[in-house]
């Protein structure tokens, strides 16, 4: 039986509640097999539990986590494998196995979160902000090329703006180009929100051919050929709205026409290219403004979940660590919505940490009483309109 579904044995009810969305997913997750005749010292669920615990409790390193699994009563009893885990076995697991399973759990959990969490801007369509974030690496991470004397990895993430959750993730070295991932991240009918670094006239044509949309800020000196101008209100932030071709003819001009919206925020002029003709110019400006949400996500995720305190130095191990951080965030998003009707906040995360600490000290009768109260409150919450 999963620890997430056995709260009498697993005394921290709040941690079990946090992991509840994983129950059905874990039943269908591809089996992690031992590569020798000996049984696994750390099953996939053990590894997943440990890494969720790592991010939730703000451990500062893999060694810090392994020490907690050995010395902290709660972690030793409820997070660590039943026979314990050696440091060498933990790091071997991080660097050599489990990636297929973590990818599967992340993909299924983000789908589940997408079904549960409400949309903030349904009238704007399915919005996906796309951006990359650099991760400081150590010099021994030879694969994480960036520049002489500096090693960095880069995550490329698609972020569901309407629901406030990560959707897709790719990992490259620090020099990894960002533009090719746009088409891989977006599904047909979705709108990618992109900064100037993603400006590519060839990709604008390709996305339209694939039935995918974009709202992308472009460089102010981009050559534009106006095909038709649209009226703008005198009291609007928008000063220009037109159907155009971008680029120099015969060199890099777009084959398909698109829409170019110019608007003013303070003293800054923004030029945004899009194929969305169904929205007003002001809505286009709003869509691009929402791109800031992915920047806020990166900042919060790094600061409060300690995602980039490296556990492993291999690309395999780093990808597992990042996926575990994203899974933890998705679980928190579902938990905060279902229990508090709110989005993720550090206030609720700290509250959850304290609840887990307090509940780990309860007696069995107190656990059963809390479980009954929890079931009643959950039923009431789900019955609410």
Give an account of the 3D structure.
There is one protein chain. The protein is α+β, with helices and mostly antiparallel strands and 385 residues long. Among the domains are: 3-104 and 305-383, no CATH class; 196-277, no CATH class. It is 43% helix and 19% strand. The chain is built from 14 helices and 10 strands. A hairpin with a 4-residue loop joins β3 and β4 (165-173). α3 packs across α12 (315-340) and α7 packs parallel to α12.
Keyword list:
385 residues; 10-stranded mixed β-sheet; alpha+beta
Brief rundown of the structure:
By secondary structure, the chain is of the alpha+beta class. The chain is 43% helix and 19% strand. Among the domains are: 3-104 and 305-383, no CATH class; 196-277, no CATH class.
Tell me the fraction of residues in β-strands, as a range. Answer: 15-25%
Gap between N and C termini, in Å? 33 Å
C-alpha Rg (nearest Å): 24 Å
- The mean pLDDT is 86
Q: Which structural class do the helices and strands define?
A: alpha+beta
- Using DSSP, what is the number of strands? 10
Low-confidence stretches: 5-10
- What is the oligomer described by this structure? single chain
Query: How many DSSP helices?
Result: 14
Shape: elongated
Largest pleated sheet? 10 strands, mixed
Q: What is the N-to-C succession of helices and strands? A: HHHHHHHEEEEHEHEEEEEHHHHH
Report helical residue fraction: 40-55%
């Amino acid at each position: 039986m999963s620890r997430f579904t056995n709260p009498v044995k697993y005394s921290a009810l709040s941690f079990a509640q946090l992991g509840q969305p994983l129950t059905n997913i874990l039943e269908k997750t591809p089996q992690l097999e031992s590569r020798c005749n000996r049984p696994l010292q750390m099953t996939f669920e053990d590894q997943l539990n440990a890494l969720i615990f790592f991010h939730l409790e703000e451990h500062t390193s893999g060694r810090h986590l392994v020490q907690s699994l050995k010395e902290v009563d709660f972690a030793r009893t409820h997070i660590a494998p039943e026979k314990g885990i050696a440091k060498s076995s933990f790091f071997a697991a991080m660097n050599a196995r489990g990636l297929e399973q973590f990818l599967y759990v992340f993909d299924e959990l983000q789908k589940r979160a997408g079904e549960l969490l409400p949309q903030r801007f349904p009238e704007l369509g399915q919005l996906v902000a796309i951006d990359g974030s650099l991760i400081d690496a150590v010099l021994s991470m030879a694969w994480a090329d960036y520049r002489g004397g500096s090693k960095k990895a880069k995550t490329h993430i698609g972020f569901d703006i309407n629901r406030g959750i990560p959707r897709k993730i790719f990992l490259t070295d620090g020099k990894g180009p960002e533009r090719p991932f746009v088409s891989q991240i977006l599904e047909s009918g979705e709108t990618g929100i992109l900064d100037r670094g993603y400006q590519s006239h060839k990709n604008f044509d390709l996305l339209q051919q694939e039935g995918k949309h974009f709202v992308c800020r472009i460089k102010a000196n981009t050559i534009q050929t106006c095909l038709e101008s649209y009226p703008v209100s005198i009291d609007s932030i928008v000063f220009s709205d037109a159907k155009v071709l971008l680029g120099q003819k015969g060199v890099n001009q777009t084959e398909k026409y698109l829409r170019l919206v110019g608007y003013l925020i303070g003293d800054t002029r923004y030029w945004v290219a899009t194929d969305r003709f169904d929205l007003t110019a002001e809505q286009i400006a709003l869509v691009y403004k929402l791109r800031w949400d992915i920047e806020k996500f990166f900042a919060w995720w790094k600061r409060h979940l300690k995602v980039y305190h490296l556990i492993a130095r291999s690309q395999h191990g780093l990808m597992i660590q990042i996926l575990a951080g994203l899974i933890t965030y998705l679980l928190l998003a579902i938990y905060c919505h279902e229990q508090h009707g709110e989005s993720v906040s550090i206030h609720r995360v700290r509250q959850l940490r304290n609840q887990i600490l307090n509940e780990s000290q309860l007696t069995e009768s107190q656990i059963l009483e809390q479980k009954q109260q929890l079931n009643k409150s959950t039923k009431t919450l789900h019955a609410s309109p």
